Amino acid sequence: MHLLYYGSYQEELLQSQRAEALLKEQSVKMGKQYDAPESRAHILPFIKSFHLESTMAEMLEPDPAKYHTFNE
Fold first, then answer.
1. pLDDT tens per residue, the chain (72 residues)?
2. N or C end of the chain: smaller count of CB under 10 Å?
3. 3-state SS class at 26
4. Are 44 and 67 in contact (CB under 8 A)?
5. Cβ distance 72 to 46 under 8 Å?
6. Do residues 7 and 22 touch, judged by C-beta distance below 8 A?
7. CA gap 24, 34 in Å, rounded
8. Sign of the torsion angle spanned by Cα atoms 56, 61, 63, 69
9. In this predicted structure, what is the pLDDT of residue 18?
10. Helix 17-33 crosses helix 8-15 at what angle (to 10 degrees)?
C-alpha cells in the first residue's frame, strides 16, 4: 500500500473511486485484524519503525507490553 502514496501517477490513482474503495476496504480489514490479541506482535515493530520510543512517555500507558491489542 505504501507504493500508492508516492509519485504523481500514484497520486492520480488515489483520486479514483476504485482506489478509494480499495483503500477503505483495506483499512477496515486492517482495523479488524488490529483488534485481535495477536496484533500485539505489531506494536513494538511499529514503534521502532516510526521512531516513537521517545514519545511513549506521553501515552496514558507508556509500557507497550501492557496493551492487549494494537488498536488499544
1. 555 555 666 666 667 777 788 889 999 999 999 999 999 999 999 999 999 999 999 999 999 999 999 999
2. N
3. helix
4. no
5. no
6. no
7. 15
8. negative
9. 79
10. 90
What is the residue whose three cell numbers read 488498536?
71
| Lookup result for grid cell 506482535 | 41
Residue that is written with C-alpha cell 477496515 in the block: 28
3-class SS at 43? Answer: helix
Is the Cβ–Cβ distance between 38 and 68 less than 8 Å? Answer: no
Cell numbers that stand for 35 in this block: 483488534
Q: What is the dihedral of CA 5, 53, 40, 4, to 10 degrees?
A: 0
- Cβ-proximal residues to 37 (8 Å cutoff; 6+ apart), any chain: 68, 69
